[in-house]
Model the fold of this input.
Amino acid sequence: MCGIVGYVGSLPASSFLLEGLRRLEYRGYDSSGIAVHHDGKINIRRAVGRIDQLAAIMPDSDSSDSHGSLGIGHTRWATHGPPTEQNAHPHPGGDGEVVLVHNGVIENFQPLRDQLRDEGFVFRSATDSEVIAHLIAKSLRQLPETIGQPHDRYVAAVRQTLDQLRGTYGLAVIFRQCPDLIIAARFGSPLVVGVSRGAHFLASDTSPLAGHTDKIVYLADHQIAVIQPHDLTVLHRDQGRISHDVQVIQAETNEVSLEGFDHYMLKEIHEQPDAIRNAMRGRLDDQHATAIFGGLNLTPQQLRSIDRIILTGCGTSWHSALVGEYLLEEFARIPVEVEYASELRYRNPPIDSNTLVFGITQSGETADTLAALVETKRKGHRTLAINNVVGSSIAQAADGGIYLHAGPEIGVASTKAYTSQCCVLAMLALYFGRLRHLSYEAGMQFIEHLRRLPSAVEQALTCDAQVQKIATQYLNAQTFLYLGRQYNFPTALEGALKLKEISYIHAEGYPAAEMKHGPIALVDPQTPSVFIVPRGTTYEKVIANMEEVKARGGPVIAIACQPDSAMDQIADEVLLVPSVPEFLQPIVSVVPLQLLAYHVALLRGCDVDKPRNLAKSVTVE
Ligand code: AGP
Done:
Protein backbone atom coordinates (compact mmCIF):
# COMPACT_ATOMS: atom_id res chain seq x y z
CA MET A 1 0.00 0.00 0.00
CA CYS A 2 1.22 3.50 0.75
CA GLY A 3 1.43 6.46 -1.58
CA ILE A 4 4.59 8.05 -2.93
CA VAL A 5 5.20 11.51 -4.38
CA GLY A 6 8.30 13.30 -5.56
CA TYR A 7 9.23 16.59 -7.20
CA VAL A 8 12.38 17.98 -8.76
CA GLY A 9 12.29 21.35 -10.49
CA SER A 10 12.61 25.00 -9.68
CA LEU A 11 9.56 25.61 -7.46
CA PRO A 12 9.30 24.85 -3.74
CA ALA A 13 8.63 21.10 -3.60
CA SER A 14 6.65 20.93 -0.39
CA SER A 15 3.35 22.33 -1.64
CA PHE A 16 3.17 19.74 -4.46
CA LEU A 17 4.24 16.99 -2.06
CA LEU A 18 1.62 17.82 0.54
CA GLU A 19 -1.18 18.21 -1.97
CA GLY A 20 -0.10 15.05 -3.77
CA LEU A 21 -0.17 13.10 -0.52
CA ARG A 22 -3.71 14.29 0.14
CA ARG A 23 -4.73 12.86 -3.21
CA LEU A 24 -3.01 9.57 -2.38
CA GLU A 25 -4.41 9.29 1.12
CA TYR A 26 -6.76 6.57 -0.11
CA ARG A 27 -3.66 4.32 -0.23
CA GLY A 28 -3.09 4.56 3.51
CA TYR A 29 -3.44 7.05 6.32
CA ASP A 30 -1.52 5.65 9.28
CA SER A 31 1.23 8.27 9.05
CA SER A 32 2.87 10.52 6.49
CA GLY A 33 6.01 12.48 5.90
CA ILE A 34 8.08 14.47 3.47
CA ALA A 35 11.80 15.08 2.93
CA VAL A 36 12.99 18.25 1.21
CA HIS A 37 16.53 18.90 0.03
CA HIS A 38 17.68 22.43 0.81
CA ASP A 39 21.04 24.07 1.31
CA GLY A 40 22.97 20.79 1.29
CA LYS A 41 20.68 19.24 3.92
CA ILE A 42 17.66 16.97 3.76
CA ASN A 43 14.90 18.07 6.14
CA ILE A 44 12.46 15.37 7.15
CA ARG A 45 9.05 15.98 8.71
CA ARG A 46 6.79 13.13 9.73
CA ALA A 47 3.51 12.81 11.58
CA VAL A 48 1.26 10.03 12.80
CA GLY A 49 -2.27 10.01 11.39
CA ARG A 50 -3.83 11.88 8.51
CA ILE A 51 -2.13 14.31 6.12
CA ASP A 52 -3.71 17.15 8.15
CA GLN A 53 -1.37 16.19 11.00
CA LEU A 54 1.60 16.53 8.67
CA ALA A 55 0.30 19.84 7.29
CA ALA A 56 0.11 21.12 10.84
CA ILE A 57 3.86 20.64 11.36
CA MET A 58 4.98 22.00 8.01
CA PRO A 59 7.19 25.10 8.16
CA ASP A 60 5.78 28.53 7.21
CA SER A 61 6.29 29.45 3.59
CA ASP A 62 8.92 32.01 4.59
CA SER A 63 10.97 29.49 6.56
CA SER A 64 14.12 28.38 4.72
CA ASP A 65 13.42 24.64 4.71
CA SER A 66 10.18 25.17 2.82
CA HIS A 67 12.16 26.44 -0.17
CA GLY A 68 13.87 23.29 -1.37
CA SER A 69 12.91 22.34 -4.91
CA LEU A 70 13.68 18.64 -4.57
CA GLY A 71 11.62 16.41 -2.33
CA ILE A 72 9.82 13.14 -1.76
CA GLY A 73 6.78 12.25 0.34
CA HIS A 74 4.88 9.24 1.60
CA THR A 75 1.55 8.30 3.12
CA ARG A 76 1.72 4.99 4.97
CA TRP A 77 -0.39 1.94 5.53
CA ALA A 78 1.57 0.08 8.17
CA THR A 79 2.95 -3.35 7.31
CA HIS A 80 6.10 -3.73 9.44
CA GLY A 81 5.98 -1.79 12.67
CA PRO A 82 3.09 0.13 14.25
CA PRO A 83 1.99 3.54 12.99
CA THR A 84 4.43 5.67 14.97
CA GLU A 85 6.51 8.66 13.95
CA GLN A 86 9.72 6.55 13.92
CA ASN A 87 8.12 4.14 11.48
CA ALA A 88 6.76 6.89 9.26
CA HIS A 89 8.60 7.48 5.97
CA PRO A 90 10.88 9.03 4.68
CA HIS A 91 13.68 6.95 6.18
CA PRO A 92 17.32 8.04 6.23
CA GLY A 93 20.07 5.52 5.49
CA GLY A 94 23.65 5.50 6.73
CA ASP A 95 24.31 8.85 8.38
CA GLY A 96 21.55 10.51 6.43
CA GLU A 97 23.39 10.61 3.10
CA VAL A 98 20.42 8.76 1.57
CA VAL A 99 16.70 9.30 2.25
CA LEU A 100 13.92 7.23 0.75
CA VAL A 101 10.25 6.39 0.65
CA HIS A 102 9.04 2.88 -0.11
CA ASN A 103 5.78 1.23 -1.07
CA GLY A 104 5.70 -2.56 -0.93
CA VAL A 105 7.03 -5.33 1.27
CA ILE A 106 10.62 -6.56 1.53
CA GLU A 107 10.30 -10.21 2.42
CA ASN A 108 13.96 -10.84 3.30
CA PHE A 109 14.33 -7.69 5.41
CA GLN A 110 15.18 -9.57 8.62
CA PRO A 111 18.45 -11.24 7.52
CA LEU A 112 19.46 -8.02 5.74
CA ARG A 113 18.71 -6.03 8.88
CA ASP A 114 20.70 -8.43 11.07
CA GLN A 115 23.67 -8.23 8.73
CA LEU A 116 23.58 -4.42 8.48
CA ARG A 117 23.29 -4.13 12.24
CA ASP A 118 26.37 -6.35 12.66
CA GLU A 119 28.17 -4.00 10.32
CA GLY A 120 27.31 -1.02 12.51
CA PHE A 121 24.26 0.47 10.82
CA VAL A 122 21.82 1.92 13.32
CA PHE A 123 18.13 1.18 12.83
CA ARG A 124 15.68 3.78 14.05
CA SER A 125 12.47 2.12 12.88
CA ALA A 126 10.83 -1.29 12.86
CA THR A 127 10.11 -1.08 9.14
CA ASP A 128 11.33 -3.33 6.36
CA SER A 129 11.96 -0.18 4.29
CA GLU A 130 14.83 1.11 6.40
CA VAL A 131 17.07 -1.75 5.25
CA ILE A 132 16.84 -0.41 1.71
CA ALA A 133 18.07 3.02 2.84
CA HIS A 134 21.02 1.51 4.70
CA LEU A 135 21.88 -0.85 1.84
CA ILE A 136 22.05 2.06 -0.60
CA ALA A 137 24.21 4.03 1.83
CA LYS A 138 26.48 1.01 2.25
CA SER A 139 26.86 0.57 -1.52
CA LEU A 140 27.61 4.26 -1.96
CA ARG A 141 30.41 4.00 0.60
CA GLN A 142 31.90 1.04 -1.24
CA LEU A 143 31.72 2.46 -4.76
CA PRO A 144 34.61 4.54 -6.13
CA GLU A 145 34.01 8.31 -5.92
CA THR A 146 33.98 8.71 -9.69
CA ILE A 147 32.53 6.21 -12.09
CA GLY A 148 31.17 7.30 -15.48
CA GLN A 149 28.64 10.13 -15.53
CA PRO A 150 28.06 12.19 -12.35
CA HIS A 151 24.97 10.22 -11.30
CA ASP A 152 26.15 6.76 -12.29
CA ARG A 153 27.47 6.10 -8.81
CA TYR A 154 24.04 6.67 -7.28
CA VAL A 155 22.34 4.54 -9.90
CA ALA A 156 24.89 1.79 -9.29
CA ALA A 157 24.23 1.91 -5.54
CA VAL A 158 20.47 1.59 -6.09
CA ARG A 159 20.96 -1.25 -8.56
CA GLN A 160 23.25 -3.17 -6.21
CA THR A 161 20.65 -2.76 -3.49
CA LEU A 162 17.74 -3.92 -5.63
CA ASP A 163 19.69 -7.06 -6.44
CA GLN A 164 19.62 -8.00 -2.77
CA LEU A 165 15.88 -7.45 -2.21
CA ARG A 166 13.15 -10.08 -2.32
CA GLY A 167 9.65 -8.62 -2.39
CA THR A 168 7.95 -5.65 -3.93
CA TYR A 169 8.86 -2.02 -4.12
CA GLY A 170 8.00 1.38 -5.47
CA LEU A 171 10.93 3.50 -4.35
CA ALA A 172 11.95 7.13 -4.46
CA VAL A 173 15.46 7.90 -3.25
CA ILE A 174 17.24 11.23 -2.79
CA PHE A 175 20.84 11.92 -1.80
CA ARG A 176 22.35 14.59 0.42
CA GLN A 177 25.06 15.28 -2.12
CA CYS A 178 22.68 15.67 -5.07
CA PRO A 179 20.34 18.66 -4.93
CA ASP A 180 18.74 17.76 -8.26
CA LEU A 181 18.28 13.99 -8.39
CA ILE A 182 15.55 11.48 -7.56
CA ILE A 183 16.06 7.83 -8.38
CA ALA A 184 12.85 5.85 -8.59
CA ALA A 185 12.50 2.11 -9.00
CA ARG A 186 9.51 -0.12 -9.47
CA PHE A 187 8.77 -3.77 -8.93
CA GLY A 188 5.19 -4.65 -8.08
CA SER A 189 4.18 -1.21 -6.76
CA PRO A 190 3.11 1.34 -9.36
CA LEU A 191 4.95 4.57 -10.13
CA VAL A 192 4.36 7.26 -12.74
CA VAL A 193 6.54 10.19 -13.72
CA GLY A 194 4.98 13.48 -14.81
CA VAL A 195 6.99 15.44 -17.34
CA SER A 196 6.93 19.23 -17.36
CA ARG A 197 9.12 22.09 -18.57
CA GLY A 198 12.13 22.15 -16.25
CA ALA A 199 10.52 19.85 -13.71
CA HIS A 200 9.48 16.25 -13.12
CA PHE A 201 6.89 14.82 -10.78
CA LEU A 202 6.71 11.33 -9.35
CA ALA A 203 3.68 9.60 -7.88
CA SER A 204 2.06 6.25 -7.18
CA ASP A 205 -0.74 7.10 -9.58
CA THR A 206 -1.67 9.98 -11.82
CA SER A 207 -4.00 11.83 -9.43
CA PRO A 208 -1.26 14.04 -7.84
CA LEU A 209 -0.21 15.12 -11.34
CA ALA A 210 -3.61 16.59 -12.26
CA GLY A 211 -3.24 20.32 -12.77
CA HIS A 212 0.55 20.01 -13.09
CA THR A 213 1.10 18.06 -16.29
CA ASP A 214 -0.67 15.79 -18.72
CA LYS A 215 2.54 14.15 -19.97
CA ILE A 216 2.97 10.90 -18.15
CA VAL A 217 5.46 8.06 -18.22
CA TYR A 218 4.28 4.82 -16.65
CA LEU A 219 7.21 2.93 -15.18
CA ALA A 220 7.08 -0.84 -15.63
CA ASP A 221 8.40 -3.50 -13.30
CA HIS A 222 12.21 -3.72 -13.17
CA GLN A 223 12.58 -0.14 -14.41
CA ILE A 224 14.62 2.56 -12.75
CA ALA A 225 14.01 6.24 -13.47
CA VAL A 226 16.79 8.78 -13.06
CA ILE A 227 14.90 12.02 -12.60
CA GLN A 228 16.35 15.53 -12.78
CA PRO A 229 14.69 18.87 -13.54
CA HIS A 230 15.56 18.79 -17.24
CA ASP A 231 16.18 15.13 -17.82
CA LEU A 232 14.44 11.81 -17.40
CA THR A 233 16.33 8.60 -18.11
CA VAL A 234 14.71 5.19 -17.79
CA LEU A 235 16.87 2.12 -17.29
CA HIS A 236 16.09 -1.55 -17.06
CA ARG A 237 17.34 -2.90 -13.76
CA ASP A 238 19.51 -5.55 -15.38
CA GLN A 239 20.18 -3.88 -18.69
CA GLY A 240 21.04 -0.40 -19.84
CA ARG A 241 19.07 2.64 -20.80
CA ILE A 242 15.72 2.02 -22.50
CA SER A 243 13.38 4.33 -24.39
CA HIS A 244 10.22 5.45 -22.66
CA ASP A 245 6.83 6.54 -24.00
CA VAL A 246 5.41 9.82 -22.84
CA GLN A 247 1.64 9.45 -22.88
CA VAL A 248 -0.68 12.43 -22.91
CA ILE A 249 -3.36 11.73 -20.33
CA GLN A 250 -5.73 14.12 -18.67
CA ALA A 251 -5.05 13.05 -15.09
CA GLU A 252 -7.97 13.48 -12.74
CA THR A 253 -7.84 14.30 -9.09
CA ASN A 254 -9.95 12.28 -6.75
CA GLU A 255 -11.06 15.49 -5.10
CA VAL A 256 -14.79 15.23 -4.93
CA SER A 257 -17.03 17.41 -2.87
CA LEU A 258 -19.43 15.97 -0.33
CA GLU A 259 -22.30 17.86 -1.95
CA GLY A 260 -24.16 18.26 1.31
CA PHE A 261 -23.72 14.69 2.55
CA ASP A 262 -21.98 14.11 5.87
CA HIS A 263 -19.75 11.36 4.51
CA TYR A 264 -18.53 10.07 1.18
CA MET A 265 -19.95 6.66 1.94
CA LEU A 266 -23.45 8.07 2.37
CA LYS A 267 -23.07 10.16 -0.77
CA GLU A 268 -21.89 7.13 -2.72
CA ILE A 269 -24.75 4.99 -1.44
CA HIS A 270 -27.13 7.66 -2.73
CA GLU A 271 -25.28 7.90 -6.05
CA GLN A 272 -26.09 4.27 -6.87
CA PRO A 273 -29.08 4.87 -9.13
CA ASP A 274 -26.93 7.17 -11.29
CA ALA A 275 -23.90 4.91 -11.11
CA ILE A 276 -26.02 2.03 -12.43
CA ARG A 277 -27.42 4.26 -15.19
CA ASN A 278 -23.87 5.18 -16.16
CA ALA A 279 -22.75 1.55 -16.16
CA MET A 280 -25.58 0.79 -18.61
CA ARG A 281 -25.31 3.94 -20.72
CA GLY A 282 -24.77 3.08 -24.38
CA ARG A 283 -24.45 -0.61 -23.55
CA LEU A 284 -28.02 -1.84 -24.07
CA ASP A 285 -28.74 -2.81 -27.65
CA ASP A 286 -32.49 -3.01 -28.34
CA GLN A 287 -31.98 -3.95 -31.95
CA HIS A 288 -30.19 -7.17 -31.13
CA ALA A 289 -31.53 -7.60 -27.57
CA THR A 290 -28.06 -7.76 -26.13
CA ALA A 291 -25.37 -5.70 -24.45
CA ILE A 292 -22.53 -3.87 -26.18
CA PHE A 293 -19.01 -3.71 -24.80
CA GLY A 294 -16.44 -1.70 -26.69
CA GLY A 295 -13.26 -2.81 -24.97
CA LEU A 296 -13.32 -6.61 -24.81
CA ASN A 297 -10.84 -6.79 -27.69
CA LEU A 298 -12.16 -10.21 -28.64
CA THR A 299 -14.22 -11.12 -31.70
CA PRO A 300 -17.69 -12.68 -31.30
CA GLN A 301 -16.14 -15.90 -32.69
CA GLN A 302 -13.46 -15.89 -29.98
CA LEU A 303 -16.10 -15.13 -27.36
CA ARG A 304 -18.33 -17.94 -28.59
CA SER A 305 -15.50 -20.40 -28.11
CA ILE A 306 -15.21 -19.53 -24.42
CA ASP A 307 -16.35 -22.54 -22.39
CA ARG A 308 -15.19 -21.54 -18.93
CA ILE A 309 -14.88 -18.27 -17.06
CA ILE A 310 -12.81 -17.46 -14.00
CA LEU A 311 -13.82 -14.39 -12.03
CA THR A 312 -11.28 -13.11 -9.57
CA GLY A 313 -10.99 -10.18 -7.17
CA CYS A 314 -10.75 -9.30 -3.50
CA GLY A 315 -13.18 -8.21 -0.78
CA THR A 316 -16.31 -6.60 -2.12
CA SER A 317 -15.19 -7.18 -5.70
CA TRP A 318 -14.97 -10.89 -4.89
CA HIS A 319 -18.55 -10.70 -3.66
CA SER A 320 -19.70 -9.21 -6.95
CA ALA A 321 -17.83 -12.04 -8.69
CA LEU A 322 -20.04 -14.49 -6.75
CA VAL A 323 -23.14 -12.69 -8.04
CA GLY A 324 -21.54 -12.90 -11.51
CA GLU A 325 -21.16 -16.66 -11.13
CA TYR A 326 -24.89 -17.11 -10.57
CA LEU A 327 -25.72 -14.76 -13.46
CA LEU A 328 -23.34 -16.19 -16.04
CA GLU A 329 -24.18 -19.78 -15.26
CA GLU A 330 -27.93 -19.12 -15.40
CA PHE A 331 -28.07 -16.96 -18.52
CA ALA A 332 -24.95 -17.85 -20.51
CA ARG A 333 -24.73 -21.48 -19.34
CA ILE A 334 -20.97 -21.14 -19.05
CA PRO A 335 -19.28 -22.81 -16.07
CA VAL A 336 -17.83 -20.12 -13.81
CA GLU A 337 -15.31 -20.32 -11.02
CA VAL A 338 -14.78 -17.55 -8.51
CA GLU A 339 -11.30 -17.29 -7.05
CA TYR A 340 -9.83 -15.01 -4.44
CA ALA A 341 -7.08 -13.23 -6.38
CA SER A 342 -4.70 -13.78 -3.46
CA GLU A 343 -5.17 -17.54 -3.88
CA LEU A 344 -5.28 -17.62 -7.66
CA ARG A 345 -1.94 -15.85 -7.97
CA TYR A 346 -0.10 -18.72 -6.27
CA ARG A 347 -2.24 -21.59 -7.47
CA ASN A 348 -1.61 -23.40 -10.67
CA PRO A 349 -5.09 -24.35 -11.80
CA PRO A 350 -5.44 -26.05 -15.15
CA ILE A 351 -6.68 -23.36 -17.52
CA ASP A 352 -7.31 -24.29 -21.13
CA SER A 353 -7.28 -22.07 -24.17
CA ASN A 354 -11.04 -21.49 -24.05
CA THR A 355 -11.04 -20.07 -20.56
CA LEU A 356 -11.47 -16.35 -20.04
CA VAL A 357 -10.25 -14.72 -16.85
CA PHE A 358 -11.86 -11.55 -15.50
CA GLY A 359 -10.26 -9.45 -12.78
CA ILE A 360 -12.91 -7.44 -10.96
CA THR A 361 -11.76 -4.34 -9.11
CA GLN A 362 -12.92 -0.88 -8.20
CA SER A 363 -9.51 0.73 -7.92
CA GLY A 364 -7.64 -1.23 -10.54
CA GLU A 365 -4.66 -1.17 -8.17
CA THR A 366 -5.27 -4.12 -5.84
CA ALA A 367 -1.94 -5.95 -5.71
CA ASP A 368 -3.36 -9.48 -5.54
CA THR A 369 -5.82 -8.94 -8.40
CA LEU A 370 -3.10 -7.37 -10.51
CA ALA A 371 -0.68 -10.21 -9.80
CA ALA A 372 -3.32 -12.87 -10.52
CA LEU A 373 -4.06 -11.30 -13.91
CA VAL A 374 -0.41 -10.79 -14.79
CA GLU A 375 0.39 -14.40 -13.92
CA THR A 376 -2.58 -15.70 -15.95
CA LYS A 377 -1.60 -13.52 -18.88
CA ARG A 378 2.01 -14.66 -18.66
CA LYS A 379 0.77 -18.19 -19.25
CA GLY A 380 -0.85 -17.01 -22.45
CA HIS A 381 -4.47 -16.80 -21.31
CA ARG A 382 -6.88 -14.02 -22.14
CA THR A 383 -7.48 -11.63 -19.31
CA LEU A 384 -10.10 -8.91 -19.03
CA ALA A 385 -10.72 -6.33 -16.31
CA ILE A 386 -13.97 -5.02 -14.86
CA ASN A 387 -12.63 -1.85 -13.35
CA ASN A 388 -13.67 1.63 -12.27
CA VAL A 389 -10.50 3.67 -12.57
CA VAL A 390 -9.49 4.60 -16.10
CA GLY A 391 -5.81 3.98 -16.82
CA SER A 392 -5.26 2.04 -13.58
CA SER A 393 -2.57 -0.63 -13.36
CA ILE A 394 -5.07 -3.47 -13.84
CA ALA A 395 -6.72 -1.72 -16.79
CA GLN A 396 -3.32 -1.53 -18.42
CA ALA A 397 -2.26 -5.06 -17.57
CA ALA A 398 -5.38 -6.77 -18.93
CA ASP A 399 -6.00 -7.55 -22.60
CA GLY A 400 -9.22 -5.57 -22.52
CA GLY A 401 -12.10 -4.82 -20.25
CA ILE A 402 -15.17 -2.99 -19.15
CA TYR A 403 -15.15 0.25 -17.19
CA LEU A 404 -17.80 0.73 -14.53
CA HIS A 405 -18.13 4.51 -15.02
CA ALA A 406 -19.30 4.76 -11.40
CA GLY A 407 -17.27 7.92 -10.76
CA PRO A 408 -14.66 8.25 -7.99
CA GLU A 409 -15.40 6.12 -4.94
CA ILE A 410 -13.75 7.77 -1.93
CA GLY A 411 -15.30 5.99 1.07
CA VAL A 412 -13.16 3.00 2.00
CA ALA A 413 -16.30 0.86 2.16
CA SER A 414 -17.19 0.08 -1.41
CA THR A 415 -20.85 0.69 -2.25
CA LYS A 416 -21.60 2.11 -5.68
CA ALA A 417 -18.72 0.18 -7.24
CA TYR A 418 -20.28 -3.06 -5.94
CA THR A 419 -23.72 -2.45 -7.41
CA SER A 420 -22.15 -1.21 -10.66
CA GLN A 421 -20.01 -4.36 -10.84
CA CYS A 422 -23.11 -6.53 -10.36
CA CYS A 423 -24.85 -4.55 -13.07
CA VAL A 424 -21.94 -4.97 -15.51
CA LEU A 425 -21.84 -8.69 -14.75
CA ALA A 426 -25.58 -8.90 -15.45
CA MET A 427 -25.01 -7.24 -18.84
CA LEU A 428 -22.14 -9.63 -19.46
CA ALA A 429 -24.44 -12.58 -18.74
CA LEU A 430 -26.93 -11.14 -21.22
CA TYR A 431 -24.18 -10.65 -23.80
CA PHE A 432 -22.78 -14.17 -23.49
CA GLY A 433 -26.30 -15.59 -23.29
CA ARG A 434 -27.27 -13.89 -26.54
CA LEU A 435 -24.14 -15.24 -28.24
CA ARG A 436 -25.44 -18.68 -27.34
CA HIS A 437 -28.93 -19.92 -26.66
CA LEU A 438 -30.80 -16.93 -25.14
CA SER A 439 -33.74 -15.91 -27.35
CA TYR A 440 -34.38 -12.41 -28.63
CA GLU A 441 -37.50 -12.18 -26.43
CA ALA A 442 -35.62 -13.28 -23.33
CA GLY A 443 -32.89 -10.76 -24.17
CA MET A 444 -35.43 -7.95 -24.51
CA GLN A 445 -37.06 -8.87 -21.21
CA PHE A 446 -33.66 -8.86 -19.55
CA ILE A 447 -32.99 -5.37 -20.93
CA GLU A 448 -36.33 -4.09 -19.65
CA HIS A 449 -35.59 -5.40 -16.17
CA LEU A 450 -32.20 -3.72 -16.27
CA ARG A 451 -33.78 -0.42 -17.28
CA ARG A 452 -36.07 -0.49 -14.25
CA LEU A 453 -33.19 -1.14 -11.90
CA PRO A 454 -32.08 2.46 -11.13
CA SER A 455 -35.55 3.48 -9.98
CA ALA A 456 -35.84 0.34 -7.82
CA VAL A 457 -32.55 1.29 -6.14
CA GLU A 458 -33.87 4.84 -5.73
CA GLN A 459 -36.90 3.47 -3.90
CA ALA A 460 -34.77 1.20 -1.76
CA LEU A 461 -32.93 4.29 -0.52
CA THR A 462 -36.12 5.63 1.03
CA CYS A 463 -35.80 3.12 3.89
CA ASP A 464 -33.04 5.27 5.40
CA ALA A 465 -35.06 6.61 8.39
CA GLN A 466 -36.26 3.12 9.28
CA VAL A 467 -32.72 1.76 9.04
CA GLN A 468 -31.54 4.49 11.42
CA LYS A 469 -34.08 3.32 14.01
CA ILE A 470 -32.95 -0.27 13.68
CA ALA A 471 -29.32 0.83 13.94
CA THR A 472 -30.06 2.62 17.22
CA GLN A 473 -31.64 -0.52 18.59
CA TYR A 474 -28.82 -2.92 17.75
CA LEU A 475 -25.71 -0.74 17.86
CA ASN A 476 -24.36 -2.49 20.95
CA ALA A 477 -24.60 -6.01 19.56
CA GLN A 478 -21.26 -7.81 19.53
CA THR A 479 -22.02 -10.08 16.62
CA PHE A 480 -24.37 -9.92 13.65
CA LEU A 481 -25.27 -12.82 11.38
CA TYR A 482 -26.16 -12.12 7.75
CA LEU A 483 -28.00 -14.89 5.97
CA GLY A 484 -29.25 -15.29 2.41
CA ARG A 485 -29.52 -17.88 -0.30
CA GLN A 486 -28.72 -18.19 -3.99
CA TYR A 487 -28.28 -14.74 -5.54
CA ASN A 488 -28.47 -13.25 -2.07
CA PHE A 489 -25.82 -15.38 -0.44
CA PRO A 490 -23.24 -12.88 -1.76
CA THR A 491 -25.52 -10.10 -0.47
CA ALA A 492 -25.21 -11.62 3.01
CA LEU A 493 -21.42 -11.68 2.70
CA GLU A 494 -21.37 -8.10 1.50
CA GLY A 495 -23.69 -6.88 4.29
CA ALA A 496 -21.45 -8.53 6.89
CA LEU A 497 -18.28 -7.08 5.35
CA LYS A 498 -19.76 -3.57 5.30
CA LEU A 499 -20.71 -3.76 8.96
CA LYS A 500 -17.40 -5.12 10.20
CA GLU A 501 -15.16 -2.83 8.21
CA ILE A 502 -16.72 0.42 9.35
CA SER A 503 -18.35 -0.32 12.73
CA TYR A 504 -15.81 -2.90 14.03
CA ILE A 505 -18.65 -5.21 15.05
CA HIS A 506 -18.01 -8.84 14.31
CA ALA A 507 -20.31 -10.06 11.55
CA GLU A 508 -20.59 -13.27 9.59
CA GLY A 509 -22.25 -13.81 6.25
CA TYR A 510 -23.50 -17.29 5.53
CA PRO A 511 -25.76 -19.16 3.13
CA ALA A 512 -28.95 -19.26 5.20
CA ALA A 513 -29.27 -23.04 5.08
CA GLU A 514 -25.66 -23.57 6.17
CA MET A 515 -26.39 -21.81 9.44
CA LYS A 516 -27.55 -25.00 11.12
CA HIS A 517 -24.17 -26.58 10.45
CA GLY A 518 -22.40 -24.34 12.92
CA PRO A 519 -23.17 -20.62 13.15
CA ILE A 520 -26.56 -21.25 14.76
CA ALA A 521 -24.56 -21.85 17.94
CA LEU A 522 -23.95 -18.09 17.99
CA VAL A 523 -27.66 -17.27 18.14
CA ASP A 524 -28.82 -15.71 21.39
CA PRO A 525 -31.05 -12.74 22.34
CA GLN A 526 -28.15 -10.31 21.87
CA THR A 527 -27.16 -11.51 18.38
CA PRO A 528 -29.26 -10.11 15.56
CA SER A 529 -29.65 -12.18 12.38
CA VAL A 530 -30.22 -10.21 9.21
CA PHE A 531 -32.05 -12.31 6.63
CA ILE A 532 -32.26 -11.36 2.97
CA VAL A 533 -35.55 -12.93 2.05
CA PRO A 534 -36.94 -11.79 -1.30
CA ARG A 535 -39.77 -13.71 -2.94
CA GLY A 536 -38.36 -16.38 -5.22
CA THR A 537 -37.17 -19.95 -5.40
CA THR A 538 -35.97 -20.24 -1.83
CA TYR A 539 -38.40 -17.84 -0.09
CA GLU A 540 -40.13 -20.48 2.06
CA LYS A 541 -36.85 -22.18 2.83
CA VAL A 542 -35.35 -18.94 4.15
CA ILE A 543 -38.47 -18.36 6.24
CA ALA A 544 -37.87 -21.77 7.80
CA ASN A 545 -34.32 -20.67 8.66
CA MET A 546 -35.72 -17.49 10.22
CA GLU A 547 -38.03 -19.57 12.40
CA GLU A 548 -35.05 -21.61 13.55
CA VAL A 549 -33.33 -18.45 14.74
CA LYS A 550 -36.50 -17.15 16.42
CA ALA A 551 -36.98 -20.45 18.20
CA ARG A 552 -33.60 -19.87 19.84
CA GLY A 553 -34.44 -16.34 20.97
CA GLY A 554 -32.40 -14.53 18.31
CA PRO A 555 -33.67 -11.16 17.04
CA VAL A 556 -34.49 -11.27 13.33
CA ILE A 557 -34.16 -8.39 10.86
CA ALA A 558 -35.65 -9.13 7.45
CA ILE A 559 -34.80 -7.49 4.15
CA ALA A 560 -37.85 -8.50 2.16
CA CYS A 561 -39.68 -7.37 -0.96
CA GLN A 562 -42.75 -5.15 -1.20
CA PRO A 563 -45.41 -6.25 -0.50
CA ASP A 564 -44.84 -8.92 2.11
CA SER A 565 -47.41 -8.83 4.88
CA ALA A 566 -46.32 -12.23 6.24
CA MET A 567 -42.93 -10.85 7.22
CA ASP A 568 -44.27 -8.83 10.18
CA GLN A 569 -45.34 -12.08 11.86
CA ILE A 570 -41.90 -13.61 11.54
CA ALA A 571 -39.31 -10.88 11.87
CA ASP A 572 -38.72 -8.35 14.64
CA GLU A 573 -37.79 -5.69 12.10
CA VAL A 574 -38.76 -5.59 8.47
CA LEU A 575 -37.20 -3.49 5.74
CA LEU A 576 -39.06 -3.69 2.46
CA VAL A 577 -37.36 -2.99 -0.85
CA PRO A 578 -38.85 -3.08 -4.35
CA SER A 579 -39.21 -6.48 -5.89
CA VAL A 580 -37.17 -7.04 -9.05
CA PRO A 581 -36.37 -10.34 -10.79
CA GLU A 582 -34.39 -12.66 -8.58
CA PHE A 583 -31.18 -12.26 -10.59
CA LEU A 584 -31.15 -8.48 -10.04
CA GLN A 585 -32.38 -8.53 -6.44
CA PRO A 586 -28.83 -8.41 -4.94
CA ILE A 587 -28.39 -4.93 -6.43
CA VAL A 588 -31.51 -3.68 -4.63
CA SER A 589 -31.35 -5.70 -1.42
CA VAL A 590 -27.83 -4.64 -0.56
CA VAL A 591 -28.91 -0.99 -0.19
CA PRO A 592 -30.48 -1.29 3.31
CA LEU A 593 -27.45 -3.32 4.40
CA GLN A 594 -25.08 -0.55 3.31
CA LEU A 595 -27.25 1.97 5.18
CA LEU A 596 -27.38 -0.25 8.26
CA ALA A 597 -23.58 -0.46 8.39
CA TYR A 598 -23.33 3.29 7.88
CA HIS A 599 -25.75 4.22 10.66
CA VAL A 600 -24.40 1.69 13.16
CA ALA A 601 -20.85 2.96 12.53
CA LEU A 602 -21.94 6.56 12.86
CA LEU A 603 -23.79 5.92 16.11
CA ARG A 604 -20.72 4.15 17.49
CA GLY A 605 -18.60 7.19 16.69
CA CYS A 606 -16.48 5.45 14.04
CA ASP A 607 -14.69 7.19 11.20
CA VAL A 608 -17.02 5.98 8.46
CA ASP A 609 -14.96 7.04 5.44
CA LYS A 610 -11.56 6.09 6.80
CA PRO A 611 -12.01 3.12 9.12
CA ARG A 612 -9.09 2.02 11.23
CA ASN A 613 -6.47 -0.34 9.79
CA LEU A 614 -7.83 -0.06 6.25
CA ALA A 615 -7.02 1.78 3.05
CA LYS A 616 -9.08 2.32 -0.05
CA SER A 617 -6.57 0.55 -2.26
CA VAL A 618 -4.70 -2.52 -1.07
CA THR A 619 -1.48 -2.29 -3.03
CA VAL A 620 0.54 -4.81 -1.04
CA GLU A 621 -0.16 -8.50 -0.97
C1 AGP B 1 -14.78 -3.06 0.41
O1 AGP B 1 -15.68 -2.34 1.16
C2 AGP B 1 -13.41 -3.08 0.87
N1 AGP B 1 -12.93 -1.85 1.29
C3 AGP B 1 -12.45 -4.00 0.14
O2 AGP B 1 -12.87 -5.29 0.43
C4 AGP B 1 -12.26 -3.87 -1.40
O3 AGP B 1 -13.43 -4.24 -2.05
C5 AGP B 1 -11.08 -4.74 -1.82
O4 AGP B 1 -9.92 -4.27 -1.19
C6 AGP B 1 -10.89 -4.78 -3.30
O5 AGP B 1 -10.63 -3.53 -3.84
P1 AGP B 1 -10.73 -3.25 -5.38
O6 AGP B 1 -12.15 -3.46 -5.78
O7 AGP B 1 -10.31 -1.84 -5.54
O8 AGP B 1 -9.83 -4.20 -6.08
